[in-house]
Amino acid sequence: MQAVVFDFFGVICSEITPFVLPRYMSVEDAIAYKADIVEEADLGHLDLPEVLDLLSQRTGASPATLLGEFWAHVKINPEMVALIEAVKRRYKTALLSNAMNPFLREVMAKHDLERLFDVIVISAEEGLTKPNPEIYQLVTTRLGIAAEQCFFTDDNAVNVAAARNAGFHSEQFAGVEKLKADLAALGVTV
To answer: Does 190 map to a domain?
Structure first.
């Protein structure tokens, strides 16, 4: 194994939309919103201010209130940061995340997280989202490493399966201790 690739929301940072949206709409509306507007934002077709305006129209909450709610739910997992720091000492590291512009970059800058990664691939910057196979290939190309030499973790089972189909070793994220065990099983020492 030469590289470890991490998802962001649900792995390094708490999820945001599952906590914010249900405060303002039904579960059905939240699912539709995520499938519609969030997907467009993750592809880079909408930026954060546009998403907040659309969400404001649907909920009646102001864009500023919604942005405050988004930021209030940003919780960086310090155990994950420490693990990535340890991994980075011996292996290449990459971030592969479905996220809108510029929110993820702002979160990473505020918490000094860009330093953790040799390669950062954000869906909105590339016009591709997981589970599209092309985004996994983009990561390996930028790392300069074959997919078979990469491990990927994500909290979404669909993205894990897509990574496996792209040739990665991949396991669904279910906590830091399980991730450590998954890495150790592949001979990744930290």
So the answer is: no
Q: Are residues 112 and 147 in the same domain?
A: yes
Q: Specify burial of residue 181 (Cβ count, 10 A radius: 0-12, 13-18, 19+).
A: exposed
CA atoms within 13 A on the CB side of 48: 17
Sequence letter at residue 115: R
- The closest of 162, 107, 111, 110 to 139, measured between CA atoms, is 162
Give yes or no for residue 28 having a pLDDT over 90: no
User: What is the average pLDDT value for the chain, to the nearest integer?
Assistant: 95
Residue by residue, DSSP assigns 38-81 as IHHHHTTSS-HHHHHHHHHHHH---HHHHHHHHHHT--B-HHHH
Question: Residue 24 — very low, low, confident or very high, per pLDDT cuts 50/70/90?
Answer: confident
Together in a domain, 93 and 107: yes
Which amino acid is located at 84 in the chain?
A: I
Q: What distance in Å separates the CA atoms of residue 97 and residue 18, rounded to the nearest whole number? A: 16
Cα–Cα dist 27/23, whole Å: 10
Q: What is the pLDDT of residues 142-187, one digit of tens each?
A: 999 999 999 999 999 999 999 999 999 999 999 999 999 999 999 9
pTM strictly above 0.90: yes
In a domain, 91, yes or no: yes
Overall domain count for the chain: 2
